[in-house]
Amino acid sequence: MEKREIANRNDIILLVDSFYDKVKTDDVIGFIFNDVAKVDWPHHLPIMYNFWEGLLLDGGNYKGNVMDPHFKLNKLIPLEPAYFDRWLQLFEATVAENFTGEKATLAVTRARSVKGIMSFKMNQVNRPDSDKQIPLVNPGNKQ
Ligand code: HEM
């Protein structure tokens, strides 16, 4: 298929639909959506169209809270960094297969950015003591 620019809502719909087609059948993260969250796709997809339209084309009117559903999901199954890495891999592959141009690059930049923050926040919740593992005083340095 010829690659296109992300120029309008139809392109956003193609991006989001193609991405979740991969997600749903993915060996690594598919089960989280299908079996753990049991996502209601007709409900979820239009929210995602709005979200991505907002990030890429300044439209879409997304008014949700991106982090909340993930904190809730994280209680059912810890959202490990490896899951986020896979999520991003699938997203980047979707963009590369279908799109070209400035907005395609922006889509990947924005996805990396939100993924990085989200993964960091889940990790903070899952490993509350992780910051305390770095000794403030080097134990080998005692005098
Ligand atoms: C392993 C990584 C991820 C998993 C397993 C995951 C899973 C989910 C699930 C199950 C939902 C709720 C769907 C429902 O309404 O039932 C959701 C919502 C959502 N996710 Fe993710 N997600 C991941 C990463 C991301 C990332 C990196 C982004 C952003 C770049 C993102 C953006 C969103 C948005 C915008 C919503 C809708 C929130 C709302 O309802 O307003 N997700 N996600």
Structure explained in plain terms:
With 143 residues, the protein is an all-alpha fold. The chain has a single domain (9-126), classed as Globins (Globin-like, Orthogonal Bundle), CATH 1.10.490. Helices cover 64% and strands 0% of the residues. It has 6 helices and no strands. Helix 1 packs across helix 3 (41-57), helix 3 (41-57) packs across helix 6 (102-126) and helix 5 (81-98) packs antiparallel against helix 6 (102-126). The longest helix has 25 residues, at 102-126. The chain is globular. The model has no long low-confidence stretch (mean pLDDT 92). Protoporphyrin IX containing FE binds at residues 29, 32-33, 37, 39-40, 44, 47, 51, 64-66, 69-70, 73, 79, 83-84, 87, 111, 114-115, 118. This is Hemoglobin.
Instruction: Count structural domains.
Output: 1
The gyration radius over C-alpha positions equals: 18 Å
Ligand set: protoporphyrin IX containing FE
Number of helical runs?
6
Could you estimate the helical fraction of the residues in percent? 55-70%
Taken in chain order, the helices and strands follow as HHHHHH
Supply the helix-strand structural class: mainly alpha
Biggest pleated sheet: none
Named CATH topology: Globin-like
Q: Low-confidence stretches at least 5 residues in length (pLDDT < 50)?
A: none
CATH architecture designation? Orthogonal Bundle
How many DSSP-defined strands? 0
| Share in β-strands | under 5%
CATH superfamily: Globins
The N- to C-terminal Cα distance equals: 68 Å
Indicate the CATH class. Mainly Alpha
Shape: globular
GO molecular function: heme binding; oxygen binding
InterPro entries: Globin-like_sf, Globin/Proto
Protein name: Hemoglobin
Organism: Chitinophaga ginsengisegetis
